[in-house]
Every structure is written in C-alpha cells, then in structure tokens.
Amino acid sequence: MSERKLVIPGEIIVSEKEFLPGEWTEKRNDEIVAVRFGVAEEQDRLVRVIPISGTYQPRKGNVVIGQAVNILSSGWFIDIDTPENAFLPVSEFPRYINRGEFADVLDIGEMVVAKIINIDKRGIDLTIRAHGLGKVEDGLIIKINSNKVPRIIGKEGSMINLIKEETGCNITVGQNGVIWISGKDTEAELFAKKAIMYITENFFMEGLTEEMKRWFEEEKGK
Amino acid sequence: MTKESNFKRPDGRNVDEMRPIKVKVGVIPNADGSAMFAFGDTVAIAAVYGPRKMHPQHAQDPEKGVLRCEYNMLSFSVDERIRPGTNRRSTEISKITEWALQPVLMLEKYPNAVIDVFINIIQANASTRCAGINAAALALAHAGIPMKNLVSSVSIGKLDKQLVVDVNKLEEDWEEGEGPTDIPVTMTPDGRITHMQLDGKISNEQLREVLRLAKEATKKIHEIQKEALKKSVETGGKE
User: Fold this and answer.
1) How far apart are CA A180 and CA A140, in angstroms?
2) Smallest Cα–Cα separation from B97: which of B25, B186, B26?
3) CA distance A115 to chain B (A)
4) Is B91 helix (H, G, I), strand (E, B) or coil?
5) In angstroms, rounded to a whole number, what is the distance separating the alpha carbons of residues A41 and A54?
6) What pLDDT band is residue B238 in, cutting at 50, 70 and 90?
7) Are A163 and A169 in contact (CB under 8 A)?
8) Residue A165 burial (CB count, 10 A)
9) Does B106 touch chain A (CB under 8 A)?
10) ipTM exceeding 0.95?
11) CB pairs under 8 A between A and B
C-alpha cells in the first residue's frame, strides 16, 4: 500500500503480516482494519487512519480561536466549539485589569486567540500570556472541520506559508478549526478564504501543496 | 428456490429482491454526522451530535460513553396523520436501535460523554426501523465515531409460508394462509447479528433460511452504504 486511501469502519486496509496497526486501526488475524472513517496512510510499515470528520477534541497545548460569551468577576467564558465553554481567567491576561474594565478589554462577542493550559473534569482553562495570542483585531473569521486543520498548515507549515505568501494575508489557524484571516483589504481576505475552502474540499488529494501552487497561478492569471 | 420463485409479490419483486435503495451521506450540515437511507418509499434521516458531555451528570458513565437514540415518525409520514411525539412504539424502536448499534461502537473511548442519534422517518412504507438503523450507522461513521464495523439492517417477511426480503406495507398486512410474520435483522458485513426481532410465528428450519437471506441482503446494503460514505468525500461534502 503506497497511496492514500479512503476507508470506512471495518474495512481491511492491508492484509500483509509485516504491517503494524497505528492510530484508529486494529489488528484482526493478520489484517489491519480501520475503525474510523478517514484516510488510511502507511509510513514505515505503520498503518494509520487520519480522521476527516467528527467533533473537535480539545488537547492541552492547543492554540484555539474562540468567542467571549460571558463575563464573570474572575474572567471570561470563551466558546471554542467544544461541548463546554472554556474559561479564561484574568490572571492569565498579560496585564493588570481593574474590576469593571473587563468589558473594555474583551467584550462579549469578541474573538480571542488562546492556548489551552489545562483540561480537567471542571472544564478547560485558557491563557493568552504567550507570543501570538490575544484578542482578534479586524479581519475575517471562518470555520472549517477541525480534522482538516493539519492539511491547512501542511508539513512544517508549508501550506499555510504558501497561502500567506500568495495572498499577503496574516493567517492564524486555531486547532478547533476556526481561522482568522487579516489582510490589507477585504478582497485579499476573501481570496485567502477561497484558497482555504479549496483545500478543505480537496484535502484527500496527494501533493496538495504542489496543487495549490498551480491553483494560485491559475487564479492569478484570471 | 425453484418452488418459491413462482410466488407473486404485490409489487412484482422477486422474493429476494429489495426495493430500490437510495443513500446520501451528509444531508444535515448542522449535525456532526448525518445520512439519509431509503428503501423505496420508506425514507429515514439520521443526525448524530457528539460525543459531548452527558447531562444530567448522574447519567454519566465514567467507563464508557452512552449512546442515546431517538426514533420518531413524522406526523405526515403515513397516510393517516399520526399524533406527533413519543409513543409506546417509538420508545421501543429507539431502544432497539441503541441495542443494534452499540455492539459495533467503541464507546470506551469517550467516558462521561453521550452520543445523540436522532432518527426521523419522513415517509413510511414498512421496514422503518431497518431504514433508521441503516441511516444511523452511516451517520455515526460520518460523525467520526470509532466503530468496529458498520451494520446493515433488513426485514425478512413470511407471507403465508413464503419468505421474502424487505417487506412493504401491503406485505406486512398479508392476510392469506398463516398471515404475516416480520423479522427485522441487523448484521455486520461478516454476518454477526446485532439485532433480531420476531413478530409472528416461524419454525426452526425456516429461521435458518431467514438468516441466510438476511446475510445476503445485508451484504448488498453494506456495499451501498460503503459507496455512499466514500462518495460523500469525493464530492467535497457538497453536491
């Protein structure tokens, strides 16, 4: 097996003995079987399935983009597209804020780029005390399926850098599938959105970065 | 089956012939996974939400996730309007659907969570629970829930002494001879049964024949389900 292949739960991916079962696969009598709908991939005899659908599963360390939905005396509740809202305490804000100033700094409805610092049974805790995190200023917010985020970023950021270069926009991708595009004008932002949408539609394609280079050339020729 | 092939079904089908099947995956953009499944005039749509945190908290299971199914027939799905909402029959079918799907789901990966499956029958002409289970299995796979296998469901009927695959309303109300017997069966593609019901009477030998027919039919359904799931991606989620 060399190329990527779309698999459904219960489908046999390979039936040779020398392969090992990786993520979302199972070994059943020398056969490697997919247990999740996705794209099967083989690397160094390890077979795994990359999911292409489903809900976002938050992980510690993920950078996400969310919307402030409530203000409490100790911080903000942020909707990051998880079943439970995440909490951003004031102590995790980069500077000191007076009581009553909360809404001036981050009002309900405003978006924020944050990092998950802790997940426990009480909920998810966020921070914005790091480089690149903070309130979303002007720009465009789009939402894609969180399982397609790795394809938008590409190998070592190759894809996202290509889009940034070609469109001249600054793009922040949240692991929850929310993307913030900010460019010099709306036209550039919409162009970047179009490129991202093209990737999500063709995410299973091989050599996608090359294809995107071609796509940009074609779009610019118009 | 020389003797049996002379049997005339009301709609002219062969005894082992199902009604034309229509499948579409991703019919509800708002859901995490969704599918439509139709056996001829019987149309079911299923939507999956989750896994998400179970509320109320006392219903949570710290060892594995919970599957919650809701089967519902829309008031206009049958000739005479039915009262909308939960009734005795829909409660039973909801539970049956849960039991039919649970064996293939790997719920242990989602402790304290719940997966909600909503099945709506928008048009009914018998075999609605089978169409519902088929749609739900597809919707669960589409929602990225880890599963050991897909399941496919079909109803086998006994009209007088004759076994037929995929009964419709006319056949369900068969009045000649021994009358009708309806046996909905759900199977994995390797022929393991996850659900079987019997409404009527049947002999041991004939039940074996029922399972053979069901195995053949579910295999065909599985192929259609597989194709539909793969097609949902190749069209880029839109059509």
Assistant:
1) 6
2) B186
3) 21
4) helix
5) 19
6) very low
7) yes
8) 10
9) yes
10) no
11) 72
Instruction: Determine the Cα–Cα distance for residues A190 and A187; give it in Å rounded to an integer.
Output: 5
Nearest residue, CB atoms, B149 vs list A10, A53, A55: A10
Cβ atoms A107, A101 nearer than 8 A: no
CATH superfamily of B13-234: GHMP Kinase, N-terminal domain (3.30.230.70)
Grade residue A16 by pLDDT with cuts at 50, 70 and 90.
Answer: confident
Name chain B contacts of A201, Cβ cutoff 8 Å: 236-238
The helix (run of H) or strand (run of E) holding residue B158 is: strand B152-159
Query: B22 — contact with chain A (CB < 8 Å)?
Result: no
Which domains does chain A possess? 5-51 (2.40.50.100), 63-135 (2.40.50.140), 140-221 (3.30.1370.10)
pLDDT in tens, B3-46: 455 788 889 999 999 999 999 999 998 899 999 999 999 999 99
Q: Which residue shows structure tokens 């009002």? A: A107
Q: Would you call B147 and A54 a contact, using CB atoms and an 8 Å cutoff? A: no
Q: Which two tokens stand for residue A185?
A: 């004008």
How would you class A189 by CB atoms within 10 Å of its CB: exposed for 0-12, middle for 13-18, buried for 19 or more?
buried
Cross-strand partners of B187? B152, B193
| Chain position carrying tokens 């998880």 | A82
DSSP, collapsed to helix, strand or coil, labels residue A18 as coil
B10-36 core/surface letters (b: 16 or more CB in 10 A; e: else): eeebebbebbebebbbbbbeebbbbbb
What is the distance between the alpha carbons of residues B51 and B49, in angstroms, rounded to a whole number?
A: 7
Rounded percentage of chain B residues whose pLDDT exceeds 70: 95
- What angle do the packed helices B128-142 and B204-234 form, to 10 degrees? 40
Cα distance between residue B127 and residue B118, in whole Å: 17
Question: Which residues of A are less than 8 Å from B144 in CB distance?
Answer: 36-38, 51-55, 147
What mean pLDDT, rounded, does chain B reach? 92
The answer to whether A11 faces chain B, any CB pair under 8 Å, is: yes
